[in-house]
Amino acid sequence: MNHLSNIWNHPKTSAAGLLIAVATIGSVLSQQGITLGTAGSGTVVALVSGLASALLGLLARDPANPVSDGANSTSSTAKLGAWALIALLLPLPFASGCSEKSVAQNIVNWTPALESAVATVDSTAALLAPADAPIFAAATAGFDAAANLLVAQAKAYLANPSASVLAQLQAAVVAFQQQVNASLLSAAKITNSASQAHVTAAINGVATIVMAVLSLVTSISSKTAVARMASESPIKLATVRPYMDESKAVAMVASHYGEPVEWARAQEQQAELNAAQAGF
Prior knowledge:
This protein is mainly α.
């Protein structure tokens, strides 16, 4: 009876706990590749998890009644706000990993988008001003080879998730990430506004996917391996951050996983924070 009375006396707290549980379970199911079917262009799990997070956010913003509740309500609302933030930062599809097999599949699932993004880069030069096309072509010259190698290593690791194959996958994603970072710095030299818009959109499409794959790879790598990968990354994220398009990255992640934009934004920001803290 005490449980029932607690629920009755503290409805907001009970509702918050239920929504956090739903978001947590949804996160775990998504990591394990369990979808429970489709809902529109996404999955049922992503839809339910996203709704739970959204409702938790609304609950956290529910204003306290200063007359009837006083300081206790203000404190309760503040706690709910903190819980909402925690729910958004729960382990999500590419911000952290689980089993090697599921992460490997997650990486492979990104490869069609990567191939499409690189194809967009290949066709972008034709849209640029004549003086800008050579700069862009030189900056992105290695993308096709790097993408092909990363896709091959991802599929090889899915088929054989061994330490030796993982080491090759680590090397491939670090090398590609460094190429992307270098291309962002080189493309910054383009001053034509129209050309710059095309260049930024094209490179950021590739950068978003490589960042997602890097996050997945580091989630199943040892601390020693991550430290080695970071040491092999001289062009840090902080250097290229001014040239990265967060809104494009968030939209791509949301579309890929079939989830709300707010959820994708939390993933993207957490992935960048993890990478920066690891030394990338």
